[in-house]
Amino acid sequence: MAYMPLDKSKFYLDKSTMPKIYDLSNPWGVDTPLWPFPGPRQDLLFPRGQYLERFHKRTMTYTGTLHAGTHMDAPNHVLHLEECDQERYGYSLDEIPLEFCIGTGVILDMTHLYDEFQAKWNAADGVPSRFGDIWVELKPADFEKAAAKDGLEIRPGDWVVVNTGFHRFWRVNNDKYYNYYPGMGPEVCDWLLFEKKIKGITGTWGATDAPLWHHPLKEQMPWLDAIYTEATGRSAAVDFPDYEYCHRKFMQYGVCTIENAGGDVDLVTGKRMTVAAFPFRCEMADGGFVRLVCWEEGAIK
Hints:
Layout (H helix, E strand, L loop, with lengths): L21 E2 L24 E3 L1 H4 L3 E2 L10 E3 L12 H4 L12 E8 L2 H12 L13 E2 L1 H10 L9 E5 L10 H6 L3 E2 L1 H10 L4 E4 L13 H4 L1 H11 L3 H4 L5 H8 L3 E4 L5 H4 L3 E5 L10 E3 L3 E3 L6
Parallel strand pairs: 5-7, 6-8, 7-9, 9-10
Antiparallel strand pairs: 1-13, 2-3, 4-10, 4-12, 5-11, 11-13
Helix pairs in contact: 6-10
């Protein structure tokens, strides 16, 4: 096989003449942080089948969860078929209507929550008994305040991207990222669905539901259940008595949900953009990787 020398004089594609695409996806690979279920969990594996030094080409296979990095959940991840309108909204990942995966949207600035969390954490020296109520469940007023601050409005059919600032913990402090991110609960879920009538929701958070909304927390995240009780003196089972309400409700009504946003999000925060994230066409998949992107409205004709 002849080698192919690089001749840059013949390059003709010029990125500077093209619309700017902002990548809101987090990078991922062998050390990708995974949702912290109890017990051991297999890391992502990328074994090579062919090698450049022998075959002059590289091929790799992937073994691991479909719920890693920036990914979209499908209704069959958390819902039985009878709980869904499969014909209207799809059930497995390949059935999600592509029309739902692109649209106008707003990137809301809630990065003050990152600063407030860090201040509380540092004041407590990371000791749970000193935390108090360090967790934040987002409410409709938080969305309205963030939108108003930058002159934005959540319109029917919008994609909503929430920048909590917690993407700064991705691969830096995965404990903080997954156990303490500001997230959603039933109240704001129903508000976004039935009052704002959104099309898609994503944020710089570890899951569509806030970490404490994983009932029974004592089974799903026993370490977090213990920390919550130590920090607040209350019971998570009493305060958060449902399992992934937001997951189930959003997908029951066709709203696309994407977890672990990040990437260039700080560059577009406070703006209205066109947002897109297309899932791969994998039959039976209950979720899968997406390249979550956005661009200035009207930039691509």
